[in-house]
TrEMBL record, chain A:
Domain of life: Bacteria
Protein name: Zn-ribbon domain-containing OB-fold protein
Source taxonomy: Bacteria, Pseudomonadati, Pseudomonadota, Alphaproteobacteria, Acetobacterales
InterPro entries named in the record: ChsH2_C, ChsH2_Znr, NA-bd_OB-fold, Thioester_dehydratase-like
Organism: Roseicella aquatilis
Domain spans labelled ChsH2 rubredoxin-like zinc ribbon: 19-45
A Pfam short name: zf-ChsH2
UniProtKB/TrEMBL annotation, chain B:
A molecular function GO annotation: acetyl-CoA C-acyltransferase activity
CDD domains assigned to the protein according to its UniProt record, in alphabetical order: SCP-x_thiolase (cd00829)
Name of this protein: Thiolase
Transmembrane spans: none
Superkingdom assignment: Bacteria
Domain Thiolase C-terminal: 236-379
InterPro entries reported for this sequence: Thiolase, Thiolase-like, Thiolase_C_2
Amino acid sequence: MLAPGRAKPKPTPETKHFWDGCKEGKLLLQRCGDTGRAYFPPRPFSPYTGTRNVSVFEASGRATLHSYVIHHRPVPGFTPPYAIAVVELEEGPRLMTNIVDCEQTPEALQLDMRLEVAFTPMDEEITLPLFRPAKEAK
Amino acid sequence: MLGRGEIAIVGAAESTRIGVVPDMSQIMLHADAALNAMADAGLRPKDIDGVACVGPMMPQQIAHYLGITPKWVDGTGVGGCSFMLHVRHAAAAIHAGYCNTVLITHGESGKSRINATPRPPEPESLNGQFEAPFGPFGPPTLFPIPVLRFMKKYGVTHEDLATVAVVQREWAGRNPRAMFREPITVDDVLNSRMIAYPFRILECCLVTDGGGALILTKSDRAKDFPTKPVYILGTGESVESNMVSQMEDFTSSRAFRVAGPTAIEAAGIDRKDVDHLMIYDAFAHLPLYGLEDLGFVGRGEAAAFIREGHTRPGGKLPLNTNGGGLSYTHTGMYGMFALQESVRQMRGTAPAQVPGAKISVCHGVGGMFSASGTIVFSNERP
């Protein structure tokens, strides 16, 4: 369970499936029916072509570290310094997250390092998709 | 089609004081700058028939406060470059005959926070769901998110980024209104307090109070005003995403790549004709992105261009000559101050005047690379 204090997401009808998936340990993305390309954040149509012909699928949970900052000031729910990262999922989309089970230093956080999803509950309603160094890369 | 130089800036001013202004609320900073701009143009509120400002301040608040009855308003709010978009929209509106004389205002009590509007991300918004839970705390934690990728791709060093701040401080040293004027070194920057790695405090913009206002009209009327007209040659605008995590390319801004070249092409100029350049510098990496995305240098060349001194006083492309958001002032929406400096340079009245400057490009960014607006100015009508 995460320390209290973080901003808590409030799902909407268009994003509920994503947050339900996180609670069940599944990282659910959507795919454009026209191009086959995955996209994020969730919406019931494709940002590539506008088609409503889209499907939900479970992503692998594998990602690489695309970029980040290490914040040095206090924020509710966080102990500085902590990294705010953007990871690139194996399926293409990027998302903001935190990197766990890893020192929060430039030396430990190398761009393009391999990561895997680490579902972490905030409370009974919301589970966040955080990421940790991939096991085979340790 | 709007002609090159068809519309001109005939009034321009900042608030009487900038920096720390604890005795003015946000709306009064708008009004103070507006009154100064009207005095600059020799106009009164009854002469203005168009008003633009950026939310949370709505045009009706400003129009009513100043006693203006507008025929045209614009409340486009895309962050700190909104004023570039207001200039663009106002030029089109005047061309279309919707109004004759537009007042664009900015006021922000960014430091003193007097009647300032809080901006919490709504927990149901996409930012609230997909960024806020991971601990961002304002622009210093979000705007720099792409920069490590830029550094890795192009071999840009921490010293290179620090050099941006050093050069801008050099310009600020020539400007009595700049908040920070003492010279700094690369070591000073790299030893300053860490805010959000890789950025230290001297690579982050100031947080100040202040305002600014511009008055636009048809260039055919411009000779009736007491100041030297500054002609609008070309304009551009675009937006991308207000979620920095969803930016298409972390090493280049799509909004920059649309807005900048659109303005430069509309102006019918070559980049080598540009005498003076403003690139909104909320953080030290923005001038690098701007120089490359607007095509003033090739990909990966911006850091070397600045390191070699080309943007310094005496360099071939003077950049951010007021000291920029890093050293001059930054209320939260700095774009108005970048525009004011371009106008001063074109009027020949800037504290760090670029001798003989005839063309100025003013490029703005809106929050976390979400938006962009570019204006090409000249003191000569084509």
